[in-house]
Amino acid sequence: MTRSHLSLALVAATLWLCESYTLRNSVSWADASSDVVVRGESDAVSEEVAPALLVDNSRLWKHAYPSSVLRDGAGNNKRTVTSKTEDTTIVSSASRVFSYRMEDVKAAASPPSPPRHQQTARTARYVAHYSDWGILATISTQDKIKGLPFGNVFSVSDGPMDNSTGVIYFYLTPMENTVADLRSFPFASLTFSEAEGDFCRQQAYDPEDPRCARLTLTGKMVDVGLEEVESARWAMFSRHPEMRKWPVEHNWFFMKLELTQVWLQNWVGGVSLISLEDYFKATPY
Ligand SMILES: *[C@@H]1O[C@H](CO)[C@@H](O)[C@H](O)[C@H]1NC(C)=O
User: Which of 76, 194, 199, 204 makes the best surface tag, with the fewest CB within 10 Å?
Assistant: First the structure.
């Protein structure tokens, strides 16, 4: 395993151990796919998959992140959720880490059909709204790749399902390499693909087919101010319910992307740069 795969595995396993919350894939993918129901004690995939070292999760976090990041970071201290490990002796099948809870699945409605391709601002808002995750690229501060681009997956939300704002919110921990990057240089690009949902698959569009929309939002990542924390929290937690249970000791906090540019490719022959005014005026619905 490469180092990054290892850390990912450690993170995933640790998250699982910190209570029985789960990591979801995009709800958009959830639709008819059979893996959404894979969960529970009867899960056939063997227990021996789970490495024994996953048992002590506090040690794991120190292992996964440099100790310097374990200090209190930018703080959202209002969170009251406490979800300590209830039974760290359970070492589970790794496959269950990526399974769904049934109650989350039922919340996963399929998005409506995309807007017509000529409606570029609306398409941009559509992709931004119905995406549950995207890839955020930052300028890295990691030793080996200092100054180079580094992409990382994040769950996002631009508002609850029925209230799109166009502003993309994040729920982050200072333990993330990406957050360290942003503290050093706050500008970033967030990329979404319509391939996250079912549309491209149903149309047999390859993710690189220009008709399978791609949206890259570039701007400055800023901490969400106190007056906006409640909206950010509702935006994130309504779309990612398991986040409520993420361990408080990781000092989760909210950020948002202040847009500079909206770049969209959703049709053959060229990309659109959508003015911020048009982007915020449009609705995804
Ligand atoms: C939608 O979200 C905005 C921004 O968070 C908020 O001001 C507004 O009250 C919300 N509207 C509804 C109907 O929830």
Answer: 204
